[in-house]
From TrEMBL:
It comes from Takifugu rubripes (Japanese pufferfish). It catalyses: 1,2-dioctanoyl-sn-glycero-3-phospho-(1D-myo-inositol-3,5-bisphosphate) + H2O = 1,2-dioctanoyl-sn-glycero-3-phospho-(1D-myo-inositol-5-phosphate) + phosphate; 1,2-dioctanoyl-sn-glycero-3-phospho-(1-D-myo-inositol-3-phosphate) + H2O = 1,2-dioctanoyl-sn-glycero-3-phospho-(1D-myo-inositol) + phosphate; 1,2-dihexadecanoyl-sn-glycero-3-phospho-(1D-myo-inositol-3,5-bisphosphate) + H2O = 1,2-dihexadecanoyl-sn-glycero-3-phospho-(1D-myo-inositol-5-phosphate) + phosphate; a 1,2-diacyl-sn-glycero-3-phospho-(1D-myo-inositol-3,5-bisphosphate) + H2O = a 1,2-diacyl-sn-glycero-3-phospho-(1D-myo-inositol-5-phosphate) + phosphate. Substrate binds at residues 300-301, 361-367. Coiled coil: none annotated. Residues 152-524 form the Myotubularin phosphatase domain. The active site is at residue 361. Residues 560-597 are annotated as: Disordered. This is Myotubularin.
Length: 597
């Protein structure tokens, strides 16, 4: 690019010194150096550290030039705000430079020399490449040329996933009414609806549901045929409007497995649901016969955003030691996690007992996605496998239109946008809480969850880009970008849990009380060097070593048996008149070897 060319002019030896310090940065195919500069990194743990910073079209990379080894490797997608610190006349050491706020629980400060506007070029280039969409540039996912053995875009195929669940059947059918996103522009193209519903009914119901997000099946219980259906709020309004088609449609969902009463879980606190009537929304009233409405008291996106902000304040840069427990409690983060988990447990319990449920919040793309996906994770062991978990995220979050672009703000400079909120982060936190309570129930490990969290922001993969499928189709995400699952499935060993024990029919019931929930330290406090050194669990490490040892011994045993059988064949090679039976196969001789936990 022109910028890269103008900044990189190979003339001075000082430049070659810089290159030497930054020579070990391995760039991705398609990644280009934009600028590098001498800076002082104001490290919250080591104080002021001199070094070089490199900005590419993907990352900010810093390496210290002093004895203290300090390195930073930050995807530009993780940056939410870049500000100038101090002015040309600022007094005090290291008071002039840049302040960078990140989305991943850290902030960075760099000091530069005060003379000659030394920060102007780096500020402008960093601002441009950290927020490409605000500057008419493409997101890095469209620029990278990375190649992987696996194609992650093939992980989730809606019809195949419905088949795995046993659909269609005599009560539920698949409809392609939304194939051109005409029924609902934020829903996927394939939907599962009651057999007795006609296409015209679906259109009439869509007119009465916020954003046309009608109740559709997310999951069906193989034995009792109870379902989890998801949707948005009904458009009841202040005057208490009714819609016979909507009432009848919900009754069709109830009748599909003869549930006595359909349970409608409204994720919101009841006061919020009532307040939504003023803007034309609302909730299902007494006119919905054979249905009961339960409010789950989960707060809205703005409350969650402020809660995580408070959490960041007490963990970065320094952990609030003196009043840790009261400080943590005052953020309310774990309380919100508890309410989301508790709601999912209620949904799973109802369905497990044969009752069909409908889940919604206001628009059905934030709290609803949290509740349906977590309940499905508790009910269906398939979603607890490495591939199954990818399907769950693709299905309940990506295809059903969780607004990733708006909630995360990919490539967008508007850091104060009120649409931003850590709803998906909270979901992954809930998954982590469940894995802590059931350490053998999941095929994947914590590293997978951390990788997902990092690439939620990085913009290196197309997986979390845009708000819905129709927007992804328009921007040719599947054709032009790489899926995060391509990376994961090409090195799946990295993400496997050595303690995993498959149990197909088991429903998980975690304890959602404050006493059993923990702060996810290895995510929220991972930038603190004291924490980072403890990340690898010694038990897991030892267990992996033992498994590797077992594999080694099995290999040796197999080799010994091979050489043994070939030497015995030679010794007993039959004369033309005699016949001999074939040697026993090695596999049969060692399959009984097991490593107990």
């Amino acid at each position: 690019s022109f910028v890269a060319f103008s900044v990189y002019s190979p003339n001075t030896s000082r430049e070659s010194l810089k290159m030497e310090l930054l020579a070990d940065v391995s760039l991705f195919p398609g990644e280009e150096r934009i600028i590098d500069k001498d800076v002082i990194y104001i490290c919250p743990f080591n104080g002021a550290v001199k070094g070089k910073v490199l900005i590419t079209n993907y990352r900010l990379y810093f390496k210290s030039s002093e004895d203290v080894v300090v390195m930073l490797d930050v995807p530009l997608g993780a940056i939410s705000r870049v500000e100038k610190m101090g002015g040309a006349s600022s007094r005090g050491e290291n008071s002039y430079g840049l302040e960078i706020t990140c989305k991943d629980m850290r902030n960075l400060r760099f000091a530069l020399k005060q003379e000659g506007h030394s920060r102007r070029d780096i500020f402008e280039l960093l601002f441009r490449y950290a927020f490409p969409l605000s500057h008419g540039l493409r997101l890095f996912a469209y620029v990278t040329q990375e190649k992987y053995e696996e194609n992650g875009w093939t992980v989730y195929k809606p019809v195949e996933e419905f088949r795995r669940q046993g659909l269609p059947n005599n009560k539920w059918r698949l409809t392609f009414i939304n194939v051109h996103y005409e029924l609902c522009d934020t829903y996927p193209t394939v939907l599962a609806v009651p057999v007795k519903s006609k296409e015209e009914d679906l259109r009439r119901v869509a007119a009465f549901r916020s954003r046309g997000r009608i109740p559709v099946l997310s999951w069906i219980h193989r034995e009792n045929q109870a379902v989890i259906a998801r949707c948005s709020q009904p458009l009841v309004g202040m005057s208490g409007k009714r819609n016979k088609d909507d009432e009848r449609y919900l009754d069709l969902i109830r009748e599909a497995n003869d549930t006595t009463k359909l349970t409608i879980y409204d994720a919101r606190p009841s006061v919020n649901a009532v307040a939504n009537k003023a803007t034309g929304g609302g909730y299902e009233g007494d006119e919905y016969q054979n249905a009961e409405l339960i409010f789950l008291d989960i707060q809205n996106i703005h409350v969650m955003r402020e809660s995580l902000k408070k959490l960041k304040d007490i963990v970065y840069p320094h952990v609030e030691e003196s009043h840790w427990l009261s400080s943590l409690e005052s953020t309310h983060w774990l309380e919100h996690v508890k309410l989301v988990l508790s709601g999912a447990i209620q949904v799973a319990d109802r369905v497990s007992n044969g009752n069909s449920v409908v889940v919604h919040c206001s628009d059905g793309w934030d709290r609803t996605a949290q509740l349906t996906s977590l309940a499905m994770l508790l009910l269906d062991s398939h979603y607890r496998t490495l591939k199954g978990f990818q399907v769950l995220i693709e299905k309940e979050w990506i295809s059903f239109g969780h607004k990733f672009s708006s909630r995360i703000g990919h490539g967008d400079k508007n850091h104060a946008d009120q649409d931003r909120s850590p709803i998906f982060v909270q979901f992954i936190d809930c998954v982590w809480q469940i894995t802590k309570q059931f350490p053998t129930a999941f095929e994947f490990n914590e590293r997978l969850l951390l990788t997902i969290m990092d690439h939620l922001y990085s913009c290196r993969f197309g997986t979390f880009l845009y708000n819905c499928e129709s927007a992804r189709d328009q921007h040719e995400v599947r054709k032009m970008t790489v899926s995060l699952w391509s990376l994961v499935n090409s090195k799946s060993d990295t993400y496997l849990n050595p303690f995993y024990t498959p149990e197909s029919g088991r429903v998980l019931y975690p304890v959602a009380s404050m006493r059993h929930l923990e702060l996810w330290v290895t995510y929220y406090i991972r930038w603190n060097p004291r924490i980072r050194h403890q990340q690898q669990s010694p038990v897991e490490q030892r267990y992996k070593e033992l498994l590797a040892l077992r594999d080694e011994y099995l290999k040796k045993l197999e080799e010994l048996q091979r050489s043994d059988s070939s030497s015995s064949r030679l010794a007993n090679s039959p004369s033309p008149n005699t016949s001999s039976s074939p040697p026993p196969t090695p596999s049969k001789q060692y399959t009984h070897l097991q490593t107990p936990l």
